[in-house]
Design goal:
Radius of gyration: 28 Å
Strand content: 15-25%
Strand order of the largest sheet: 8-10-6-17-14-15-16
Oligomer: single chain
Number of strands: 28
Largest sheet: 7 strands, mixed
Distance between the termini: 67 Å
Length: 954
């Protein structure tokens, strides 16, 4: 190895360093110099997280080879722009305008924006968007709107037209009124904006020198094969290798836990091995893990592991896996492993009702395998801590759930395992799976040494789960007046290589099909199967977007067939007080009519605008879709938080509100403030320190999923605050000081425990025979409108504007809720038009898998939060997140059909599909659409089989 001494002028100072001219990139050099504000996401120059300014120009440093850079060149990184004590206007604006969410992309964006303002001190919003498009800066959290806001405000400050105070929320004016609903800044935002927040790879880089590094052996050659032999003899002899770990080293552990969520789920063993030793069941299945003194040594050795395979038949989608002649993927159970019906009203006569109705429509639909594409991939670290516990740092969003899973797979008692969530660069759901966390923990257990595990982005794309795709056959019937009389659907969910949680997602299909309409008679069936594609994991919306893909398309098709405006058809059929949902329970709220009344004038303006701007070359269209989601885990939900008095008027809050970018720190802060206000009305944000996501200190607040965090954390915070206040209260009604508490030996920390079933007693899981039940305590509702342009020459669709009317109860932090709204809509637009993980060999990075860049998302996004109040929720709040990525993708699909007459049945609506439909219409033909899918058996025959075999939860 021949090294080179170089000097670069970095952030205004000459910095001399030694580098490997053949291997090093500018990013790797900067990070070794401690400038870890330069983040590396994709590693292939397509996400912009690593942006720096080189000789006055923005470059993506992860692909800029150091040997291509002239000595004494000038480099500016995020650290040279500002710091938390002296932030640049860009950093200050990012923090105060809600442009910081997970924060991983933020340094790259700010560096890029800094260069823009050097060239153009007075940009337009479109100038800003063009700049970020040119420099490939990607954000998966915000929807980009707040980012452009921040640049515009920072530019105004730099021009002297505004000051920091002009864009600062002064909370001191709201001490008496309270801070609920206000734009309180996230406690961790400034660290992220200044590049000093350490994420997983930064923590790895700064671990003690003796720490080891792990690389997975992932024989990405096949999706299904028998493992004949794993030969690691040569790999073990490679320089620096400490251990090549295989399944034998983990036995009898090495498997994630198996859960069944329904009586109609077949019993299955622990199929998800963290290291495979018998079969490859999907692309990316790891068979070994090399642990070495450096990451380069580990990767070199991993490449020397030889895996002998015997090819097996690959079943790459649900339709292939359920064919009559398909072989079992897992020997102990059939590929279709769970089914659940829903039956409502005069369900036995639904076929006749539909056949004989004045109007009926039918269609077959495909909801695709959407990849999460967080800018930060998967990274985890493990070591034995000061108490002798095995400690794992990771991106968990379900800390205690994952802790149980990890202990099972590692093979240690759960009480001997400590789990910490690192600052996390987003996940949107995939981080609920504990495989990588268990792997790094196992590596430390086997070697006895600190170990860091990280992956290339291509490895991460193969390793991490995706949204489960689904196939649907659906029918809908109306009377002559346009009132829905019956609905029918059959669905097949592709849960990929492992069955885990697929049966739980089926319940969402049965609850959110035709939501929130009144459909008096329904027959439906939801099925889940394993395939050889990537396994299904949670993703915002968790099962509901699949249902809306079918349901909201059928609603639109019916309006079109009747000749009724799609808005009016929906208005006629939304549920009103007393109407029941598909599960034969009343809706917990009925805000639907008020929400539609709010949208109506906006819809009429949009339709008028589309007609005025429509041309033969660029067709304009408007589409709407109803959406929504449940909040929480129902009767099994519970949460614990702790509030501690640490001085007079000073408090610490402990919880596991896992912050994946949604604002767990800000949410916890505002819940704590509101819970303490009845007792300590002068409490301020500066009086509370939030400590989160470390199982050593923080009680189990539950998962950051299901839109439950604010609701459950708020409920538990109310309990903890009351307990602390009761302990501090003297007989005369005044409160003890901190010192008085200590002197009297009164505890200063109190755990508040909230249990949903203690508050409400009506919960019941969906009945396995007819789908009746109410398994939740709160809901959110969302109504979307998309305005699109379709180029007839190419079929390319551009979303010009997105509008969301939502009901989430009372808003807790306006910036956080807006962030979820705009971020959810941006993911939905990508889901509708371009995001897909189908070709495992091609879809290896964000660009290839269709990540939306800033010009793919409209700058004109509107979120109107209804003035709701959920009497069940803490402080009047319900939940937020999932609803914002429920049905908005179908609003886009409906808008395309409105624009050019092309109905897309299988996502995404690529230009090729839209163009093919346009061309068919031009030829006087009907655009191609899929035939009825075979989903394993005929719908009514399968329902008869289920009827003949009734089950219960007992």
């Amino acid at each position: 190895m021949n090294l080179k001494k170089m000097t670069l002028n970095i952030n205004g100072a000459d910095r001399m360093f030694i580098c490997d001219p053949e291997k090093d990139t500018l990013a790797s050099v900067l990070r070794r110099l401690g400038l870890t504000g330069t983040k590396v996401g994709c590693g292939t120059g397509v996400c912009g997280a690593c942006s720096v300014i080189l000789n006055g120009k923005v470059v993506r440093s992860c692909t800029r080879k150091i040997n291509k850079i002239e000595e004494y060149s000038s480099v500016i990184t995020i650290e040279g722009i500002g710091n938390p004590l002296h932030p640049h206007p860009l950093q200050y604006a990012w923090v105060n305008l809600g442009a910081v969410q997970c924060g991983f992309c933020v340094p790259g964006f700010i560096v890029s924006a800094y260069a823009l303002l050097q060239e153009n001190s007075n940009p337009t919003r479109e100038d800003v968007r063009d700049w970020f498009q040119k420099h490939r800066n990607v954000c998966r959290c915000t929807g980009y709107k707040q980012i452009v806001d921040a640049v515009m405000e920072a530019a105004a400050i730099l021009r002297g037209e505004k000051t920091f105070e002009d864009i600062t929320y002064d909370w001191s004016k709201d001490i008496k009124e309270g801070f609920y609903g206000k734009p309180l800044v996230r406690p961790n935002a400034m660290a992220k904006a200044c590049g000093v927040c350490d994420y997983g790879d930064d923590i790895e880089l700064k671990m003690p020198a003796e720490s080891l590094h792990a690389v997975l052996v992932m024989p990405m050659k096949t999706n299904h094969a028998k493992i004949l032999n794993i030969d690691f003899e040569e790999a073990e002899k490679m320089p620096g290798v400490v251990k090549v770990i295989t399944a034998k080293d983990l036995a009898p552990a090495g498997k994630l836990m198996a859960y069944q969520f329904s009586p109609r789920t077949v019993e299955f063993e622990q199929t998800h091995k963290i290291l495979q030793d018998e079969k490859i069941v999907r692309w990316g299945d790891p068979v070994a893990m090399v642990v070495a003194d450096t990451k380069d040594h580990a990767r070199a050795a991993a490449n020397k592991v030889k895996v002998e395979l015997e090819q097996l038949t690959e079943y790459m989608n649900y339709l292939d896996a359920v064919k009559p002649d398909a072989e079992r993927i897992h020997a102990s159970f059939d590929n279709i492993y769970s089914q659940q019906p829903v039956l409502k009203g005069d369900y036995e006569h639904v076929p006749e009702m539909i056949d004989e109705a004045a109007y009926s429509v039918e269609g077959s639909f495909y909801s695709s395998r959407e990849p999460h594409m967080s800018i930060e991939g998967d990274t985890a670290q493990a070591y034995y801590d000061e108490d002798g516990k095995l400690c794992v740092h990771c991106k968990t969003m379900t800390l205690y759930f994952d802790r149980d899973d990890m202990a099972e797979a590692i093979g240690i008692p759960v009480e001997d395992l400590r789990v910490i969530e690192n600052p996390t660069g987003g996940s949107f759901g995939w981080a609920m799976n504990a495989a990588s966390y268990a792997l790094v923990g196992a590596a430390t257990k086997v070697t006895g040494m600190p170990v860091a595990l990280s992956m290339t982005y291509a490895e991460f794309m193969a390793f991490s789960g995706k949204r489960s795709p689904a196939f649907f056959n659906g029918r809908l019937a109306c009377d002559k007046d346009g009132k829905i009389i019956a609905g029918e659907f059959d669905s097949g969910l592709d849960n990929g290589a492992y069955p885990e949680m697929g049966d739980d997602k089926l319940t969402k299909i049965l609850r959110f099909m035709f939501f929130p309409y009144y459909v008096p008679n329904v027959v439906g069936l939801a099925r889940s199967a394993v395939t050889n594609h990537n396994f299904g994991v949670p993703y915002r919306g968790y099962g509901a977007p699949q249902a809306y893909t079918c349901g909201e398309a059928l609603i639109d098709m019916m309006a079109e067939k009747i000749g009724m405006d799609p808005f009016e058809f929906r208005y006629k059929n939304i549920a009103r007080p007393g109407d029941t949902n598909l599960n034969q329970r009343q809706f917990l709220q009925y805000p639907m009519e008020e929400m539609m009344d709010t949208l109506k004038p906006l819809y009429e303006e949009a339709v008028k605008r589309a007609k005025a701007e429509d041309t033969p070359e660029v067709r304009k269209g408007v589409g709407i879709a109803w959406g929504g989601y449940n909040v929480g885990l129902g009767g099994v939900d519970e949460a614990t938080v702790a509030i501690e008095l640490v001085g007079d008027g000073k408090f610490r809050k402990y919880d596991t509100w896992q912050d994946q970018g949604q604002g767990g720190d800000a949410g916890s802060l505002v819940c704590t403030l509101e819970a303490l206000r009845p007792y300590f009305p002068d409490v301020t944000p500066d009086d509370i320190k939030v400590i989160q996501t470390d199982s050593k200190y923080c009680p189990n607040t539950g998962e950051s999923a299901g839109s439950r965090s604010h609701f459950a954390n708020g409920k538990a915070s109310i309990v903890a605050a009351k307990m602390l206040a009761d302990a501090m209260r003297k007989e005369d009604g005044t409160y003890r000081t901190y010192q008085e508490m200590i002197d009297e030996g009164i505890p200063t920390r109190y755990d508040g425990h909230w249990v949903a079933a203690d508050e409400w007693d009506y919960f019941d899981f969906l009945d396995p025979n007819d789908g009746t039940g109410e398994p939740t305590y709160a809901y959110t509702y969302a109504l979307f409108m998309a305005e699109v342009s379709v180029e007839t020459a190419t079929g390319k669709t551009t979303v010009d504007k997105m509008t969301c009317i939502d009901w989430v109860g009372k808003v807790g932090n306006i910036q956080s809720v807006n962030g979820q709204a705009f971020g959810g809509m941006s993911h939905a637009i990508g889901f509708a038009l371009q995001e897909n993980y189908e070709d495992v060999r091609k879809d290896t990075n964000m660009l290839r898998a269709g990540v939306p860049y800033i010009k793919d998302i409209p700058d004109d996004m509107v979120a109107i939060h209804m003035d709701g109040y959920d009497e069940r929720g803490p402080f009047g709040s319900s939940g937020a997140s999932e609803a914002f990525q429920s049905s908005d993708h179908v609003a886009v699909i409906n808008a395309i059909n409105n624009a050019c007459g092309v109905r897309i049945y299988d996502l995404p609506a690529s230009p090729e599909k839209v163009k093919a439909g346009i061309d068919a219409i031009a030829r006087g033909e009907e655009p191609e659409k899929p035939g009825k899918y075979f989903l394993g058996s005929e719908l009514y025959e399968e329902l008869e089989n289920l009827k003949a075999n009734p089950l219960s939860w007992d």
